[in-house]
Amino acid sequence: TELEFMGYLASAEAQAGEEGATPYRLAQRDFLNRHLGVWLSLLQRRLERDMKSSIYYQLFLGLTKFISAEQARLEGCLHGGER
Predict the structure, then answer these.
(1) Whole-number pLDDT of residue 81
(2) The three-state (H, E, C) secondary structure of 16-80, written as one string
């Protein structure tokens, strides 16, 4: 559900265009920091403990790389860097 909500915010950002994207970028950044990022940290500890050799752990690693890249993109956009 949280990933679906992030998808909604990203879609809204894209549709808003550059002039109207800031509120959606702020929402994404805040949601990543306050909700999804917390959940991912908890899941990582559990997967490392119980399922490190599973495909789910490998998929999770891909997800965390994507989330980190998205956080960097949002920070760059919000602070006048690359878009």
Answers:
(1) 58
(2) HHHHHCHHHHHHHHHHHHHHHHHHHHHHHHHHHHHCCCCHHHHHHHHHHHHHHHHHHHHHHHHCC
